[in-house]
Amino acid sequence: MINLKNIERYYQNGAQKTYVLRYITTQIKEGEFVSIMGPSGSGKSTLLHILGMLDEPTEGEYYFLDEPVHKFSERRRTELYQQYIGFVFQAYHLIDDLTVYENLETPLMYKKVPSGERKSRIADMLDRFNMVAKKDLFPAQLSGGQQQLVGIARALIGNPKLILADEPTGNLQSPQAKEIMEIFKQLNQEGVTIIQVTHSEANAEYGTRILNLKDGQIV
Q1: Structural domain 31-55+75-218, CATH architecture
Q2: 175: exposed, middle or buried (C-beta count within 10 Å: 0-12, 13-18, 19+)?
């Protein structure tokens, strides 16, 4: 599914280069559940954003489903992202002035999904995550765990092949964190490829493989 060849990300200041990522070469197969771990500042989130096409490498090659992402325009990358990838953020990134229902509907409107199908998919997600009674609430009226469930539902509603999760339980209490990780485990068993950035050894154990980063390199 993913093939990275010598991915580098650096910032140039005059003649000096400050590297965030160096020599990242790895493959991720469809159906894997990969955890990216490492100390703060090791490049984990930058790598995840490159994988999610929200950022681009300075050097190197990135193939997604055999397509050369590193050669694509920003518009083409956005199309790929919307078609295949769901992103779950630590800070939820819900739209504050939209209800739960409207937050779930937004990505489907970007994809120009017809109204009837939108209603059907949203109903399925609300049912799956036991949120039917909360569909007309705003994010501020929900607990952190409930907001993250909406975030996951929003990531899933476009039927992505890949879910990227950046510290998905970082702001949650232990019982809520376990609930979120069990959901990811179930999704992976259903065939969704998952890549998560985490500091938590317990969360990493849900995955099938760990990529350890240090100083921007895989160790």
Answers
A1: 3-Layer(aba) Sandwich (3.40)
A2: exposed
